[in-house]
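TL;DR need structure tokens for one chain.
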Amino acid sequence: MTSNTYTTTSVLPTKSQIKASASLVLSGLDQTRDARVALYKEFHQHPEPAFQEVWTSQRIYDELRASHIEVTRIGKTGLVARIQNGDGACVAMRADIDGLPVKEASQKPYASTYTVQDSTTGASVPTMHACGHDFHIMSLLSALKALSVHKDAWKGTYLGIFQPAEEVGQGALSMICEGLCTQFTKPDVYLGQHVMPTLPGGCVATKVGAFFSAAYSIRITLHGKGSHGSMPELGTDPIVLAASVIMRLQTIVSREMPSDERVVLTIGSVSAGNKANIIPDDAVLLLNTRTYNAELEKRLFAAIERIVRAECDAAGCTIAPDIEYFDRGPLTSNDKDTTERVQEAFTSYFAKQSLQGEPQSVSEDFSYIPDEWGCPYTFWTLGGFVDMNNAPANHSPHFAPDLQPTLDRGFEAAVVAALAWLAR
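>> reply
TL;DR here they are.
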């Protein structure tokens, strides 16, 4: 393996240099389109859930090796591609590669019919790329190939990080644990993008500061006292207690959080009992929170815990509730200088299709890796639907972004952003 040391330059390319270099690197856009569409459809038709992306990882590996691009495996399914092209800055870009256990209903002719076997039950589980990670794979893979072909247009080092398991919030951490940040020297900047239904098709958007929210899932177990349905007075009904907790939790955002701050609290699951005439012992609530501010997150959690415990006391519970936090998604807060540089490059190249972004209430594990490296980052969104007013949300069984201009624009955005540091 070649050296992991990069020679960084403090002289950054101008807008005209970025645009000229991008035009050269992207000169094969039309000629490669059919091949890129065909490869995209392969990825779309083979979605694999978190940490099971074996076929996906191998397909990416084979494409990179066929293009004579150095590639290193990180863990079971993570990959790092690297192109070293003389002295200069080092730019890293991430693409997440996992799918979701969702049955596709998009009616696309290339819709996924792929299934995986559940390790517990043995049942076949339908899967799809319901969050657009197939577009992310293609954007980064296409950028790597184009930069490899047109080394005369740029200088420095480009890292392509293909990350597993974003959907469970563990993929970035797994790559860190497998030695990514010690095996490769810290890059100058870390880049990422996500296809979304929340801006016009073919547009790109980012913003300085908090962009994707911090998220947590919370499991609350309420311990009542079981009884016969005909003798409720002999028990403590956890279902009634759960109803009281649910209604009271709804007041946190409306009455305890500042009105000018975005805070989301969702109760996504309630489970208790299995028979009409049995009062169960327990009820379990699953909550999800989204915040853009660490202090507000602490206040939100304190309010949740206060309300749950108070309602349990009011119901006469003899066992305290269990409150478990899991599936954390860190805040994605874009670095000012990095973001402004990418925005300037986008506006110069894409003109009116470069937009000012708005905070998104979705969450990502993207920032774990640059935070571990200690390098600045920016993350942008890519419009996936020309008819955005009728676009399905991410994770919907109908989520299948328009092939074009999404496929081309994701590729172009990856290249233009990188050349903001690497252009000759």
